[in-house]
Design a protein that fits this description.
Largest sheet: 4 strands, antiparallel
CATH class of one domain: Alpha Beta
CATH superfamily of one domain: Gcn5-related N-acetyltransferase (GNAT)
Structural class: alpha+beta
Strand content: 25-35%
Number of helices: 4
Distance between the termini: 19 Å
Strand order of the largest sheet: 1-2-3-4
Length: 150
């Protein structure tokens, strides 16, 4: 799949991308109450929003806050998971962070999302702290990494 994979920055206000974000919201709600920033927020600075396409079909996305270094809204379509797509999206966002001279990037991962936890650890992310959502008491972990050239 990777030979046809293209990752590029897009406006999240396109209908097909909005629908994809809604799919990601539904999946993330299984893990936590808070699902991430809205398309309005992601379409303005300091956010950079990236979309992964395979043969012109959206299969993944992710965002970087270039002020804080937070990576969020990383989501890959169920049909394309476990093929390195999320890793490539995160690498793209890490490259953006490095070009912006950010000293580190960080992200939150729900405790129940074992596949994502493993991927981030394998990419060199290190735990900062454990977070608890007040309302649901679902646990997530915050990780950081110093961006380096991919």
């Amino acid at each position: 799949m990777n030979e046809f994979l293209v990752i590029k920055e897009e406006s999240p206000h396109q209908a097909i991308i909005l629908e994809f974000l809604h799919q990601g919201d539904a999946m993330h709600r299984d893990y936590r109450a808070y699902v991430g920033r809205t398309a309005d927020e992601l379409s303005k600075p300091p956010f950079r929003f990236a979309v992964a396409y395979w043969r012109l079909q959206i299969i993944g996305c992710g965002a970087l806050n270039t002020d804080t270094g937070e990576i969020e809204r990383v989501f890959v379509d169920e049909s394309a998971r476990r093929q390195g797509i999320a890793s490539r999206i995160v690498a793209y966002l890490e490259d953006v962070a490095q070009k912006k001279l950010l000293s580190c990037v960080f992200l939150d991962v729900a405790e129940r999302n074992a596949v994502a936890l493993e991927m981030y650890k394998n990419k060199g992310y290190r735990p900062i702290k454990t977070l608890h959502e007040f309302v649901t008491m679902k646990k997530s972990f915050q990780f950081y990494k110093t961006p380096t050239k991919s």
